[in-house]
Structures are given as structure tokens and as C-alpha cells.
UniProtKB/TrEMBL annotation:
Cellular location(s): Cytoplasm
Species name: Asaia lannensis NBRC 102526
Reactions it catalyzes: heme b + 2 H(+) = protoporphyrin IX + Fe(2+); Fe-coproporphyrin III + 2 H(+) = coproporphyrin III + Fe(2+)
Functional note: Catalyzes the ferrous insertion into protoporphyrin IX.
Main location: cytoplasm
Binding site for Fe(2+): H210, E291
Pfam short name (any one): Ferrochelatase
Family: Belongs to the ferrochelatase family.
Gene: hemH
Protein name: Ferrochelatase
Coiled coil: none
Gene3D superfamilies reported in the protein's UniProt record: 3.40.50.1400
The enzyme's E.C. designation: 4.98.1.1
InterPro entries: Ferrochelatase, Ferrochelatase_AS, Ferrochelatase_C, Ferrochelatase_N
CDD domains hit by this protein: Ferrochelatase_C, Ferrochelatase_N
């Protein structure tokens, strides 16, 4: 195996130096067919995401999925694209979260951000930290609920990078945080603030999480349990019943059965029960992205109105608000081992 032949520009200070790497899923560089194709090709070739044997899946992916889906997804990305930053919202928010965290932690703790798929890569982010003299990395993947398809593959990508380093930093991976008090407090405030900004009162607050193929759960992925933990804690904080804040799963991909109830049929059935004004919160996402802004904010809203609904409002994700930075800072400080905290000043 070839090693990365790279000597960090700055040597490690005596006593060591801790850096923070925040990781997210990844997103295309542009809305054009080839940018989206490149992104989807990398994403959907990940065997943590699609477990089918490559001999079966790759011909389907290359021959069918990557010829048709990039154009459709590209149109959806174009509807939500940040034209000022010329980037997708997921990239804009992840970068802003890293910059705001860096401001909180001060200049002695470098912060980098990287994407599991696409740019900047996890390897680029690791090199950025090592170039600043870091020999210890706190690695936080920004998924509140654990899944092998997200958290584990983000960790895999870090470990793959480390496998190629001659001078390897120590790493601390931060676990998922489905009912961390700072996350629940942020969600609670975002719901209260959002409801206060409306001139009408939603009859339901539907909590829609990204879905997962059911077979993943049958094989031991405990993602739905983590989603339940989030929602039980949030209902308690807001004093809502199960019926007032139901849980559903969105973003189904492919013909297999995914975990249920599915968001779209659930929401489309509400008007015939007399429920025509709803809010949707998506606590599986720290940052707004194509799945929240377009799939729910555009597609689902249109379908709800067509089914007789009157109002559908989105509770924004935490994005780069102070509540998001409070959460990320708390997670990083709590994960920092005491022996690292001494040099970095990262104690909680
Ligand atoms: C089998 C396919 C997929 C699995 C499993 C899956 C799990 C999963 N994904 C997220 C979070 C996000 N997914 C996003 C986009 C997205 N997801 C899939 C497929 C699977 N996801 C696709 C094909 C796409 C691309 C968009 C599209 O073409 O429809 C995003 C947003 C990315 C962005 O750029 O905005 C996020 C975030 C979770 C949490 C999860 C498992 C629990
Ligand atoms: Fe996804
Ligand atoms: Fe989607």
C-alpha cells in the first residue's frame, strides 16, 4: 500500500495539539448533470449505503440510476441552490458551523470540515489539521441519530485516511447524540420560535426523519430507536402527545421496503381527517438540505395542498444558529479526553 508521503508543514508542539474535524454527508459541486452524477456515483457506490453485491448493483447504478437521476436531482438542487455562495445549503451551513465553532474555541484549537462524499474530502480536512501541528483529532459526524449508512461510513472514511498516514494522529470519534440536552433544547426553541412567528396554529407537528431500508434495521441498525429517543425527548420538552407530534420517515430510494410510516402518504391522508394546517420538523438533519427544503418544502407541500391541505410550514433545522454551535461545542468539549483537554483548554 502506498503511504501519503507528506510531512506536515508545522511540527507538533510539545505536549501535543488537538484539532476538531466536523464531517457531513457531502453534496454536489454544482447543479449540472455531471456534478450531480459524480456525487451520486460516489454516494451510491458506498457499500455501507447500498449493500447489494457490486456485480449486481454497479450495472444498475451505471446503466440506469446515473443516466436518469442526476438530471432530476439537479433540477431539485437548482431550486434550493444558494446563488450568493454558489453552493448547496448543506455545504454553506457545514462551513458556517465550522467557522463559528472555530471562533468559539479560539486560535489554539484548529477546526476543519470535510465531506464523506465529494469536497472537501475527509483526507483534505485531516491534512489541514496536521499542517497546523495537530496530532490529536476530535471527529464529529453531524448525524444526530446513529446509522451504519451515515455515522459508520463517515468513521470508515476517517480510518481509511489514517491507514495511509505515516505520522498518524490519535482520534476520538464522537457518538451520535439523539437526545443530547443541547440538541433537544435547540429543537424545542426552534419549534417555539417558529410557531410564534406564524399567524395560524398548526393542528399537528409532523416529525419527519430520513428513512432507511427496513433490511438494515432487520440486520441490526438501531437508527429508528435513536429517532424515537429524539422524538420522545422533544415531545416531553414541548408537552406534546404522540398524536400531536407523530413520527414518519421520508426520502425513500429504490423499490425495497423502507422503515414506516412513510411521510408522504401519512401527510396526504391528513386533510380527509380534517387536519389541513400542519408544521413539519425534520430532526434527523442538523442542516437544511435538499431533503428538507425541496422534498418536504416543495414536493410534499404541493402534494398536501393537492390533497386538500391549507397550510404546511417547515420548522428550519438548527443550521448555523447559536443553538447549533452550542450543541457542536458541547459535543466536542464532552468528547475531549481529559489528557487532551489540558493542552487544548477544551474541558467542558
Ligand atoms: C439507499 C440510499 C440511501 C440511504 C440508505 C440513505 C440514508 C441516509 N441519508 C441521510 C441524509 C441525507 N441524505 C441526503 C441525500 C440523499 N440520500 C440518498 C439516498 C440514501 N440515503 C440520495 C440518493 C440522496 C441525494 C439526493 C437525491 O438524489 O434525492 C442528504 C442531502 C444531501 C444534500 O446535498 O443536500 C442528507 C443530509 C441519512 C440521515 C440517512 C440514514 C439515516
Ligand atoms: Fe440520504
Ligand atoms: Fe429525497
Amino acid at each position: 500500500m502506498a503511504f501519503i508521503d507528506k510531512t506536515p508543514a508545522t511540527s507538533v508542539p510539545p505536549g501535543g495539539k488537538t484539532g476538531v474535524l466536523i464531517a457531513n454527508l457531502g453534496t454536489p459541486d454544482g447543479t449540472d448533470y455531471f456534478s450531480v452524477r459524480r456525487y451520486l456515483g460516489e454516494f451510491l457506490s458506498d457499500r455501507r449505503v447500498i449493500e447489494a453485491p457490486p456485480a449486481i448493483w454497479q450495472p444498475i447504478l451505471q446503466g440506469v440510476v446515473l443516466t436518469t437521476r442526476p438530471s432530476k436531482s439537479g433540477e431539485a438542487y437548482a431550486r434550493i441552490w444558494d446563488r450568493v455562495e454558489d453552493a448547496s445549503p448543506l455545504r454553506v451551513y457545514t462551513r458556517a458551523q465550522a467557522e463559528k465553532l472555530a471562533a468559539r474555541l479560539g486560535s489554539s484549537v484548529p477546526v476543519a470540515w470535510g465531506m464523506r462524499y465529494g469536497k472537501p474530502s475527509i483526507r483534505q480536512a485531516v491534512e489541514e489539521l496536521m499542517d497546523q501541528g495537530c496530532d490529536r483529532i476530535i471527529y464529529l459526524s453531524l448525524y444526530p441519530q446513529y446509522s451504519a449508512t451515515t455515522t459508520a461510513t463517515a468513521n470508515d472514511q476517517l480510518f481509511r485516511t489514517l491507514m495511509k498516514l505515516r505520522r498518524q494522529p490519535a482520534v476520538m470519534t464522537v457518538p451520535a447524540f439523539p437526545d443530547h440536552p443541547a440538541y433537544i433544547a435547540g429543537l424545542e426553541k426552534s419549534v417555539r420560535d417558529h410557531l410564534a412567528s406564524l399567524s395560524w396554529k398548526p393542528q399537528r407537528i409532523v416529525a419527519s426523519f430520513h428513512g432507511l431500508p427496513k433490511i438494515c434495521v432487520d440486520k441490526g441498525d438501531y437508527y429508528p430507536d435513536d429517532c424515537e429517543r429524539t422524538i420522545v425527548a422533544l415531545r416531553k420538552a414541548l408537552e406534546l402527545t404522540d398524536a400531536q407530534m407523530p413520527i414518519t420517515y421520508q426520502s425513500r430510494f429504490g423499490p425495497m421496503e423502507w422503515i414506516q410510516p412513510y411521510t408522504a402518504p401519512f401527510v396526504k391522508a391528513l386533510p380527509e381527517q380534517g387536519i389541513t394546517r400542519i408544521a413539519v420538523i425534520m430532526p434527523g438533519f442538523i442542516s437544511d438540505c435538499i431533503e428538507t427544503l425541496d422534498e418536504i418544502g416543495h414536493e410534499l407541500r404541493d402534494e398536501f395542498i393537492e390533497a386538500g391541505g391549507e397550510e404546511l410550514t417547515l420548522v428550519p433545522c438548527l443550521n448555523d444558529t447559536p443553538m447549533a454551535v452550542d450543541l457542536i461545542e458541547a459535543l466536542v468539549r464532552e468528547a475531549c479526553p481529559p489528557s487532551w483537554a489540558k493542552e487544548s483548554g477544551l474541558a467542558s
